[in-house]
Q: What sequence folds into this?
């Protein structure tokens, strides 16, 4: 058995990270092998960033037991939905109304969901790969207006401020708890940034304040699978984007979760929808189920994450 304390020591993990891992193992000892692989995979800077994020959690009044519980909430809820998907071949829910009160409008659950999801960005191989792809493809010299749909825990917006040259950031989210967490992250990590930041609590499709063809960078991470009509969201992105805009979108195929309601069964279905929305694929990243090939994942209906850099067709 791998010595997790030694792995953490070799990676120069902070005390907060060491405590978090210990708390996760206390809650679920069976997660050990997964954590061993995750710690081995994480890069030095990512380890530092995870430590800084945990310091943010502490600054918000949360100890590592709470953060571990948030993370395990994501793990356990996802496992339950995977079992449902295996038995029934569909997601448990197919409408926003079925999940809205239990998830998006439930402040306590949504806070746990966002903290837990942020931790998966450092520990889950497909999530960390998408974070790396976001940074690798981000147009760091591009100025202008940044729009994020569903900023969630705020980590993409924070990264955009870290590495970008933006004049303004607008975030739109249906969940007030998510916006509060995004605001807290940006205030903590960029307290005196000159970039203008506006976070809007509303449905993206109803956000009349957003001007056509006016955004230079648009980001929509892990949103499309949460809505009933994803093509309308893609069409709205195309409508709001400047002609030379950088558009970053992630979603998933056959990937059950407590609030996933739109199911794509293969990549072609999704990419036909992207093209029909007036968008073109510039770069793409396919991330099959951990330990499986893309073909095996498709054949066995296993979860696949996808990330795209898009442009206006």
A:
């Amino acid at each position: 058995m791998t010595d997790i304390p030694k792995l953490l020591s070799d990676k120069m993990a902070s005390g907060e990270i060491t405590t978090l891992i210990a708390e996760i193992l206390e809650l679920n000892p069976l997660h050990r092998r997964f954590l061993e692989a995750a710690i081995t995979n994480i890069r030095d800077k990512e380890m530092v960033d995870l430590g800084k994020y945990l310091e943010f959690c502490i600054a918000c009044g949360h100890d590592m037991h709470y953060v571990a519980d948030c993370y395990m909430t994501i793990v356990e809820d996802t496992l339950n939905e995977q079992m449902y998907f295996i038995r029934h071949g569909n997601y448990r829910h197919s409408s926003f109304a079925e999940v809205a009160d239990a998830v998006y409008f439930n402040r306590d659950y949504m806070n746990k969901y966002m903290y837990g999801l942020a931790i998966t960005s450092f520990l889950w191989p497909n999530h960390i790969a998408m974070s790396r792809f976001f940074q690798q493809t981000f147009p760091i010299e591009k100025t202008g207006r940044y729009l994020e749909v569903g900023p969630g825990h705020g980590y993409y917006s924070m990264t955009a401020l870290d590495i970008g040259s933006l004049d303004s950031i607008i975030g739109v989210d249906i969940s007030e708890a998510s916006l509060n967490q995004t605001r807290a992250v940006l205030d903590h990590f960029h307290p005196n940034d000159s970039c203008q930041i506006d976070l809007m609590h509303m449905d993206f499709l109803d956000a009349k304040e957003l001007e056509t063809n006016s955004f230079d960078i648009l980001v929509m991470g892990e949103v499309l699978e949460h809505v009933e009509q994803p093509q309308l969201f893609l069409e709205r992105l195309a409508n709001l984007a400047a002609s030379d805009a950088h558009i970053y979108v992630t979603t998933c195929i056959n990937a059950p979760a407590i609030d996933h309601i739109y199911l794509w069964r293969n990549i072609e279905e999704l990419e036909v929808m992207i093209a029909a929305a007036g968008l073109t694929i510039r770069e793409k990243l396919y991330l099959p189920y951990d330990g499986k090939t893309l073909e095996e994942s498709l054949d066995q209906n296993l979860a696949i994450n996808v990330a795209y850099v898009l442009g206006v067709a």
